[in-house]
Amino acid sequence: MNILCKENRLLFRSFIHAWIVLQKPLHATLRGVTSNNIDPSVDLLKTSMLETMKKFIYNDENLDLQIKKRGMRPLGGGEIVFKCPVGKQLRPIQLCDSGMIKRIRGTAYALRVSPAMANRIVDKAKGVLLNFLPDIYISTDPRKGKQSGNSPGFGVHLTAETTNGTIYSAEQVSNVVTNGEDPSLPEDLGEAAAQRLLYEIYLGGVVDSTSQSLAILFMALGQKDVSKIVTGPLTDCAIGFLRHLKEFFGITFKIEHHQLEDEVVEGSGCPKVSLTCVGIGYTNISKRTI
């Protein structure tokens, strides 16, 4: 399977397809570009989206994504191994409190360039984030040889974890100089990724902006029970996806402004949105029951 160009969208469809359609667990090796400025990277899929998925499934023991090789645009060369169990149905959830930020983690990678690029990214990103939180650790991943793919580049992926298990993610990837774009500086990437992560924290919610559509889908496909989540302002992708769900499944979400119980506005971030629906009760008829 090749994931070049639309690589991560294919992975996104793969674990949805595996969970709600297939009879046997999915074990797929995907090759191509793992990080670019177009789609979410495999790092973001591994942290944000898989953690969102785990909130809805009953068995996440064998749900895993391993990055064997990294690959940048335009030539790719990356390789990942994705494993997904088979499920019968999804659980309804009631998640309204995202919790407080307790730590920030991240990975800065450098492929076919000097390892110092990753260190420069880390220094700049930590310089910004330390003004917000002291518990910060950003590792470096300077790949060499075949593990570094076929094109040079560098990037960084950051995550913030809350006391309730919510994950906020942000990332930045260097430009492709061969396409006529201006070359990226590691310091600029580090600062931009840190600022983006702080913005995701400001938006808040029980899922970050990238995973809104995934959470909405699993709410719609869940059991015939009420599911409710609180998110930051809906993205254009999430709004369009809600329209597709109404057209395809005939399901309508109740969307309203989320009111804080203590009416504490200062320090609570951006105004939140409450999404409520009753699932259609979709079940995987291919999964055998005992």
TrEMBL record:
Statement: the UniProt record of this protein carries the keyword Iron-sulfur: no
Which controlled-vocabulary keywords does the entry list?
Answer: Nucleus, Ribosome biogenesis
A Pfam family: RTC_insert
Q: Which residues form the RNA 3'-terminal phosphate cyclase domain?
A: 11-255
Q: Membrane-spanning residues where?
A: none
User: What InterPro entries does the record point to?
Assistant: RNA3'-term_phos_cycl_insert, RNA3'_phos_cyclase_dom, RNA3'_phos_cyclase_dom_sf, RNA3'_term_phos_cyc, RNA3'_term_phos_cyc_type_2, RNA3'_term_phos_cycl-like_CS, RNA3'P_cycl/enolpyr_Trfase_a/b
Domain (RNA 3'-terminal phosphate cyclase insert): give its ranges: 97-201
**Which GO BP terms, alphabetically?**
ribosome biogenesis
Domain of life of the organism encoding this protein: Eukaryota
Its GO CC terms?
nucleolus
Instruction: Tell where it localizes.
Output: Nucleus, Nucleolus
Q: Which family does the record claim for this protein?
A: Belongs to the RNA 3'-terminal cyclase family. Type 2 subfamily.
Supply the PANTHER family for this chain: RNA 3' TERMINAL PHOSPHATE CYCLASE, RNA 3'-TERMINAL PHOSPHATE CYCLASE-LIKE PROTEIN
For this entry, the protein name equals RNA 3'-terminal phosphate cyclase-like protein
Origin organism is Cryptolaemus montrouzieri
